[in-house]
Specification:
By secondary structure, this protein is mainly beta. Helices cover about 5% and strands about 70% of the residues. The protein has 1 helix and 13 strands, in the order αβββββββββββββ. It has an 8-stranded antiparallel β-barrel. It is elongated and about 70 Å long.
């Protein structure tokens, strides 16, 4: 009834169109899965100037304990700026969005001596397109979402042994954008205000090199990282 009354007040021609500013609260469930697909270990010997080693390929099924998944669940506020228009019952728009939250760190043991630290940034930026159709006598908008998301993640190896030797590797920063696919629904509650709900699936895969150097030893890992995210969002849009 609320949507019907709002639509009667606003008229069909300008409902959910034009420039909009939005605020939302999202619950996100993120997973960062890191595992090596190739490994190199060698030592420096003063009497041997070559100091070389051979790369060893990992069998993922055999080294399944090395596959570590880090989970981050949090409620994050976000703000957005968008523009939308309609053609009959069809709706099209584009949105830029910024999300704010706390960074999340995790530590997982790869072996008795090696530990990997991961950090997922609480800040993200999004650019996405929306396209949908008005249902229920044009009172409710249903739409699909496609876009890109930028959220940084960092990983770093740490080494420690029984003799008290400890050191850290280089810090890798995973900056590749994530892809977004989702669905949403929006309903006007007054001439300029609407409420909306969205679900988004976000993913990214990347590769990098992790290097741990200390004493007279060097560990090198060719790593694969898979960042996945499920996001559920509720918010309000104000149309200017």
């Amino acid at each position: 009834m609320l949507c019907v009354q709002a639509l009667d007040q606003a008229g069909e021609s300008n409902v959910l169109t034009g420039v909009s500013v939005g605020v939302a609260l999202s619950y996100s469930n993120q997973y960062l899965k890191s595992y090596p697909y190739s490994f190199l270990f060698y030592r420096f010997y003063e009497q041997d100037p070559r100091n070389y080693g051979d790369w060893i390929d990992y069998d993922e099924s055999k080294y399944n304990p090395l596959i570590k998944k880090k989970k981050r669940c949090n409620f994050d506020p976000s703000v957005s700026l968008g523009y939308s228009f309609r053609m009959g019952n069809w709706h099209f728009g584009a949105v830029g969005e910024f999300s704010f939250g706390k960074n999340k760190k995790n530590y997982k043991a790869f072996s008795r001596r090696l530990t990997i630290e991961s950090e997922i940034s609480g800040f993200s930026s999004v650019f996405k397109f929306k396209g949908g159709y008005y249902f229920s006598n044009q009172n409710i908008l249903g739409y699909g979402i496609a876009g890109m998301k930028w959220r940084n993640a960092k990983t770093q190896f740490h080494y420690s042994d029984e003799q008290g030797l400890s050191f850290s590797g280089t810090k890798s920063k995973l900056t590749k954008p994530q892809w977004i696919l989702g669905v949403g629904s929006e309903c006007p509650i007054s001439k300029k205000l609407s409420i909306f709900a969205e679900y988004e699936y976000v993913w990214r895969s990347s590769k990098d090199m992790e290097v741990v150097t200390g004493g007279n030893s060097v560990y090198k890992f060719r790593m694969k990282h898979r960042l996945r995210e499920h996001s559920f969002k509720l918010g309000v849009n104000y149309y200017m």
